[in-house]
Design a protein that fits this description.
Elements: E1 11-15, H1 20-31, E2 35-40, E3 65-69, H2 75-85, E4 89-92, H3 99-104, H4 106-126, E5 134-140, H5 163-182, E6 186-191, E7 194-195, H6 204-216, E8 223-225, E9 231-232, E10 235-236, H7 237-248, E11 255-258, E12 264-265, H8 266-276, E13 281-284, E14 291-294, E15 300-304, H9 322-328, H10 336-350
Helix pairs in contact: 1-7, 2-4, 4-5, 6-8, 6-10, 8-10
The structure holds NADPH dihydro-nicotinamide-adenine-dinucleotide phosphate (NDP) and guanosine-5'-diphosphate-rhamnose.
NADPH dihydro-nicotinamide-adenine-dinucleotide phosphate (NDP) is lined by residues 15-16, 18-22, 39, 41, 43, 47, 71-73, 93-97, 112, 138, 140, 191, 193-194, 200.
Length: 360
């Protein structure tokens, strides 16, 4: 970078850059002229598929996108990366983000999602960057958990229902505390579910759109799902990362809900996705006996498998994004029905020669 002053430098550090949101955010910030640094984990296989399209060869002059090996469980590594990159904005998106998996790996989830957040905030303090570096925390509608109030807003009480949500609750409050204690410009984005063609394959929307495409193409026989009655407020990830950036452009840090204000049962999303793949579904039975049949052939294509039920479930999420609309000027654009259509269209292309998902 040339003679940029501290005030005009735009340097972002994104943890979780290889994930769905990280990929969209990196793309957005590069388009805005930022120098973007991302932390990726070492893996035995390639894990940069979502960001390959924006990769810049570091050997070429003027490259503005750089990746660093790191992990949220390694404090010294995080401190060193923050010191080396001197970011003006940190977006903490890295997390063990799968709710069901968190019941199986609760300690690891707490280490990466809760303590990982603390480690980054401490890096800011240790390096005396409290006034030069802003901080975004990927908080979640899972904090609301057991329904206390609908729609859920910034003032709705939290009641986490999984090890993931409990870890994110710690992260939420440590961000608030470091803001109040040390004056760090740190904000929580309480984001409701957001999806896209880049969504991880074991989250329910993508599992459904991939299966609808694979079944249509004759590459899969059946889709097994868990709780079809859960309701989620699903928006488009590309629009939500813009909200993250907006939060860090405000004069004062704060916490904001990003949501669409519309909720949809999992069962309806299944119906839409199969419809978009050209398969009309008829439902028969109820509860664990419920099955989805192809209306044209009578073949059973969808079956409930209790293995996918969670020990404690979040039944209903519907967010009120009024504060983000009024203070940030943010609102969602893509309705969930259109989102399902986009995801199925992409999966019909991708599934033509992709391997079939094993589990989810
Ligand atoms: P993804 O699961 O797609 O991405 C998670 C990212 O975190 C990946 O890059 C992953 O790396 C990385 N990661 C996981 N564990 C570690 C670790 N120990 N050290 C370093 N990196 C790690 O999540 P999303 O992009 O969907 O979500 C981004 C964030 O927003 C997460 O914190 C999630 O909990 C939160 N959130 C997501 C919502 C959503 O609907 N998508 C809603 C609300 C909050 P790798 O690629 O190697 O696995
Ligand atoms: P969620 O997303 O738990 O809301 O967390 P997910 O897509 O995993 O589940 C949504 C709902 O669908 C039900 N469900 C199934 N879920 C999965 N994964 N697989 C299935 O087969 C299945 N069948 C039914 C679930 O029980 C649930 O009710 C996501 C993650 O991105 C979090 O990181 C983020 O914080 C929240 O969204 C907001």
């Amino acid at each position: 970078m040339e003679q940029a002053t501290v005030a005009s430098r735009k340097v972002a550090l994104i943890t979780g850059v290889t994930g769905q949101d990280g990929a969209y955010l990196a793309e957005l910030l590069l388009a805005k002229g930022y120098e973007v640094h991302g932390i990726k984990r070492r893996s035995s296989s390639f894990n940069t598929g979502r960001i390959d399209g924006i990769y810049q060869d570091p050997h070429i002059d003027g490259a503005r996108f750089r990746l660093h090996y790191g992990d949220m469980t390694d404090a010294t590594n995080l401190i060193r990366i923050v010191q080396e990159t001197q970011p003006t904005e940190i977006y903490n998106l890295a997390a063990q983000s799968h709710v069901q998996v968190s019941f199986e790996t609760p300690e690891y989830t707490a280490n990466s999602d809760a303590l990982g957040t603390l480690r980054l905030l401490e890096a800011i303090r240790i390096l005396k960057m409290e006034s030069s570096c802003r901080f975004y925390q990927a908080s979640t509608s899972e904090l609301y958990g057991l329904v206390q109030e609908v729609p859920q807003r910034e003032t709705t009480p939290f009641y986490p229902r999984s090890p993931y949500a409990a870890a994110k609750l710690y992260a939420y409050w440590i961000v608030v505390n470091y803001r109040e204690a040390y004056g760090i410009h740190a904000s929580n984005g309480i984001l409701f579910n957001h999806e896209s063609p880049l969504r991880g394959e074991t989250f329910v929307t993508r599992k459904i759109t991939r299966a609808a495409a694979a079944i249509k193409l004759g590459r899969q026989d059946k889709l097994y799902l868990g709780n079809l009655d859960a309701q989620r407020d699903w928006g488009h990830a590309r629009e939500y990362v813009r909200g993250m950036w907006l939060m860090l452009q405000q004069d004062t840090p704060d916490d904001y809900v990003l949501a669409t204000g519309v909720t949809t049962p999992v069962r309806t999303f299944v119906q839409w996705a199969f419809e978009d793949a050209g398969i009309a579904i008829e439902w028969r039975g109820a509860g664990v006996e419920e099955k989805g049949y192809c209306a044209a052939t009578g073949r059973c294509l969808i079956e409930v498998d209790p293995r996918y039920f969670r020990p404690t479930e979040v039944d209903l999420l519907i967010g009120d994004p009024s504060k983000a609309r009024e203070k940030l000027g943010w609102s969602h654009e893509t309705p969930v029905r259109e989102l399902a259509r986009e995801m199925v269209a992409q999966d019909l292309i991708a599934m033509a020669d992709a391997p079939i998902a094993k589990d989810g």
